[in-house]
């Protein structure tokens, strides 16, 4: 949609003096971003992406950028942040934090087939394993605490039918988060927003996951549930497509086998993942923040998914 902070070729030439990328050749704004200002930059060392962070602060960024660096170093396909000559991954540009990362090839696959879902599942499992020794800690900032804070802010805007669903699901999820299975689930850094628009493909070849700015430490199964709720559905109805679910979770399982606790937690976790995005979309729609430039997504999409996950058991995690 927009580039919020303009960057000229002269600005880039100056910035690149601190990076091992040679001289600046070209810079083009990327129009599709909704949160940050993004640019494709051409340098003597190749093509990269420059991001100016419009909402995140200098203090918030090391978790995300160091996680991407950590994953890239371990062969997970993610944009690799480029350190400047002082070793910094985040640098000031026009008074805001900025970073340069490698450019992924390809484009988003918005009509995924089982073969794409399998590639996503396998890479997601590889990412979870690679994150086990990542040193920084940050909770999932869109986890249960945030749901508890946000529910009373959006409830006044809902009709009784939806208010009842939200209260009942919050009650169900609080009980789920307190159960033994839940506490035994594997955890670590997760992407937490691995939707179709945050993964690149060239044909059937996955070239990378990007947009890590909702990442945090949470259960691996939550990450899988978020991903399945986007990649494996009929978009109009929210109904799961069994062939795509099978492809994604089987490919994940082949890299990091699911545990018995994860199997027991699967159905409630799919509901948790639907609730998380229903709530954030309600929040973005009804509680606009002055400093943010979000175009709210439609909350009814995730209301439908949540109702569907409550009504219809999903295919199991293990065939
Ligand atoms: N590392 C990257 N490699 C290639 N393209 C990228 C990369 N990062 C971002 N993009 C492109 O920029 C667009 C906007 O990025 P995104 O992270 O979604 O922005 P925002 O956070 O502002 O919504 C993406 O849809 C993609 O086309
Ligand atoms: N995927 C979320 C919103 C986050 O948007 P993104 O473009 O930054 O991935 C949703 O669909 O609600």
Automatic annotation (TrEMBL):
The keyword Oxidoreductase does not apply. It catalyses: L-homoserine + ATP = O-phospho-L-homoserine + ADP + H(+). Pathway: Amino-acid biosynthesis; L-threonine biosynthesis; L-threonine from L-aspartate: step 4/5. The keyword Transcription does not apply. NCBIfam families: PRK05231.1 (NF003558), thrB_alt (TIGR00938). Belongs to the pseudomonas-type ThrB family. This is Homoserine kinase. It comes from Massilia violaceinigra.
């Amino acid at each position: 949609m927009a580039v919020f902070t303009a960057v000229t070729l002269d600005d880039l030439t100056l910035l690149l003096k601190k990076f091992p990328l040679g001289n600046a050749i070209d810079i083009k704004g990327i129009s599709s971003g909704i949160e940050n200002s993004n640019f494709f930059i051409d340098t003597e060392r190749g093509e990269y992406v420059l991001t100016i962070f419009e909402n995140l602060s200098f203090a918030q960024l090391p978790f995300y950028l160091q996680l991407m660096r950590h994953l890239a170093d371990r062969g997970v396909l993610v944009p690799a942040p480029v350190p400047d000559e002082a070793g910094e991954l985040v640098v000031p540009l026009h008074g805001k934090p900025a970073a340069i990362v490698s450019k992924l090839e390809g484009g988003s696959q918005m009509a995924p087939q089982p073969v794409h879902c399998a590639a996503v599942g396998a890479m997601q499992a590889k990412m979870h394993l690679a994150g086990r020794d990542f040193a920084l800690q940050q909770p999932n900032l869109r986890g249960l605490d945030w749901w508890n804070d946000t529910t009373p802010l959006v409830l006044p805007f809902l009709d009784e039918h939806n208010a009842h669903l939200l209260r009942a699901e919050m009650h169900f999820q609080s009980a789920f988060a307190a159960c033994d299975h839940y506490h035994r689930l594997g955890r670590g850094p997760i992407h937490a927003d691995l939707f179709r628009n945050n993964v690149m493909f060239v044909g059937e070849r996955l070239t990378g996951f990007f947009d890590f700015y909702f990442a945090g430490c949470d259960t691996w199964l939550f990450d899988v549930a978020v991903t399945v709720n986007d990649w494996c559905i009929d978009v109009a109805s929210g109904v799961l497509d069994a062939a795509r679910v099978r492809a994604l979770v089987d490919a994940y399982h082949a890299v990091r086998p699911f545990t018995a606790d994860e199997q027991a937690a699967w159905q409630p976790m799919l509901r948790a993942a639907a609730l998380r995005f229903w709530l954030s979309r309600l929040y973005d729609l009804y509680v606009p923040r002055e400093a943010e430039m979000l175009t709210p997504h439609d909350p009814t999409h995730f209301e439908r998914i949540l109702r569907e996950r409550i009504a219809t058991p999903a295919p199991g995690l293990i065939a």
